[in-house]
Amino acid sequence: MKTLHNINPADLVDMSAQESAHPYRVEVAYACDDNLLFGQQIYRSDAHLWLHQDLADIVSKAAADLNDQGYCLILYDGLRTVDAQAAMLETRAVKENPHWLEEPRLLSPPGAGAHPRGMAIDCSLETLEGRLLDMGTPFDYLSTDPAPESNPAHRAYTDLTEEARTNRKILDTAMAKAAQESGTPLWPLPQEWWDFRLPLEVSETYAPLSDADLPPEIRMVRYSQLSSFQRNTKLVKPRT
Predict the structure, then answer these.
(1) Which run of H or of E encompasses 181?
(2) Looking at the DSSP assignment, which residues form a beta bridge with residue 13?
(3) Res 168 pLDDT > 50
């Protein structure tokens, strides 16, 4: 098994704290109980959105480019610690939809993916006046059928309005341009139009982060939740 690098918390960027200095808006989706996917709070109510510095640079560049075009980039989720992933699997919504955990999974097991490394961003677009753009589905829409031809959130889904298709292209183009300018590879997750992440060959060389790995101000999960699932959480190691 290969040795994984540890992520230094100093390499995580507080996107929430920098919001006033950049043309993006942060809305930490899982810090409230009215999120579309789970319908209950996962993160602390005062949780900030954190990204690994390589992805943060891409996002900041893309936000500036989009602002010049008359759009505002909305940031919904970044670092999702192992504890948060485990908490998601314990929600009523997941228990009522067990197919979400069948291959190809719509929710990663704890420790898997780019989110617990701060190397994935969930984002969307709005006008400078605050009107959400039509992207074909809301952020965090999960289809009952994950197949590309049946899942409106999939990037390969074809039955979109011209407006939604255009808006997705605006977001994709800005993120791709910013990644090129940063010199950092970026992978748009196929099944979710809102998810952009560092590719597996980058993210999986790093160990995932748990709340215990982080100083208190970076931890994501509500403290009262930790004892309810953390002892029973089995960490999924990256593929080697």
Answers:
(1) helix 162-182
(2) 51
(3) yes
- DSSP labels, 96-153: H-GGGGSSSPSSPPTT-SSGGGT-EEEEEEEETTSPBP--SS-TT---SS-STTT-TT
- Considering only CA atoms, which of 78, 110, 75, 91 is closest in space to residue 38? 91
Burial class (CB in 10 A: 0-12, 13-18, 19+), 118: buried
Helices 162-182 and 53-68, axial angle in degrees (round to 10): 130
pLDDT at site 164: 99
The ranges assigned to domains in the chain are 9-232
Judge contact between 127 and 133, C-beta under 8 A.
yes
| pLDDT tens figures, 61-81 | 999 999 999 999 999 999 999
| Whole-number pLDDT of residue 146 | 82
Fold of 9-232: Muramoyl-pentapeptide Carboxypeptidase; domain 2 (3.30.1380)
219 to 10, 44, 84, 211, 225: CA distances (angstroms): 13, 8, 9, 5, 12
Q: What is the pLDDT of residues 1-39, one digit of tens each?
A: 679 999 999 999 999 999 999 999 999 999 999 999 999
200: its two tokens = 């597996």
User: Coil, strand, or helix at residue 89?
Assistant: helix
Distance CA 221, CA 159 (A): 37
Predicted TM-score (pTM) of the model is: 0.91
